[in-house]
Write a structure and sequence with these properties.
Layout (H helix, E strand, L loop, with lengths): L5 E6 L7 E11 L8 E7 L13 E5 L21
Antiparallel strand pairs: 1-2, 1-4, 2-3
Length: 83
């Protein structure tokens, strides 16, 4: 994911409507209780019908980049649950 990556999203008030946009900001947040990496993602999307408002919470899907590097688990390393 990077600035400019295409994304689709749905907002709670319009669950059957899928919007399209692109990533405009990526900010790493402080680690939470789970100590997992968390990011704040900001999207820009057309809003000709004025259905979207600033700071609406959405469920988003960001399309993976073609030929993007993938992450592989090193041999012999097993995942473990976060405590």
């Amino acid at each position: 994911m990077r600035i400019g990556s295409p994304a689709t999203f749905v907002v709670a008030s319009l669950p059957k409507r899928v919007f399209s946009g692109q990533v405009t900001q990526i900010s790493r947040l402080a680690p939470g209780a789970a100590k997992a990496a968390s990011y704040r993602i900001v999207l820009e999307a057309p809003n000709a019908d004025l259905l979207l408002a600033p700071k609406m919470t959405a469920t988003i899907a960001i399309e993976p980049e073609k030929n993007a590097p993938s992450f592989h688990r090193p041999s012999g390393v097993e995942p473990r649950p976060i405590e």
